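Quick illustration for those who missed Monday's session on complexes.
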Amino acid sequence: MHRLDPATKSRADVRRMFDAIAPRYDLLNRVLSVGSDARWRCRAVERALAGFSAQRPADVLDVCCGTADLALAFGRDERTRSVTGVDLSRSMVRIGRDKTAAERPRLAVADATRLPVRDAAFDVASVAFGLRNLVEPERGIAELARVVRPGGRVAVPKAERERACSAGTSRTCSRVSAAG
Ligand SMILES: C[S@@+](CC[C@H](N)C(=O)[O-])C[C@H]1O[C@@H](n2cnc3c(N)ncnc32)[C@H](O)[C@@H]1O
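Prediction with S-adenosylmethionine bound:
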């Protein structure tokens, strides 16, 4: 996979790179994770939705959603009321939409560092393997914290959690939970 220089990459570079990778992304993911990605997503959903129930379901936002596999996994869980996935790459979103016959999850093209979402709109905001690709990771983390309701959860994989905590404000950190 082509790597961009973190010091000089632009949003357009990142978008171009993922537009180019999109048709092969799912296959690459399966092969590189030796098929463990599905198990990882199950665990991530379990942790992110702990404390919610069918009677008290969560509104979930998955940013940098890629081809929507995590958003789909959230959508299949009865503890979610609504699931929205956003990604910068049109091609990733298009492939995600092809997998989602129904309206769940709702997918949109949007920048994780400028979410077109009002404050405190979601119970859970997740990001999986996306922070490392952001041109402004701190801003992305602040956005996750902004869109989560008081008492809600920002769910980040263990591998990216340190980055989230070191870049985030203490307000953000207190709500970051490991999502897998
Ligand atoms: C490694 S993929 C991860 C996709 C998915 N979360 C997964 O776990 O398979 C990173 C994703 O982040 C997206 N991305 C990068 N910069 C972004 C930004 N500023 N806003 C939204 N999405 C972005 C890319 O288009 C790509 O789909």
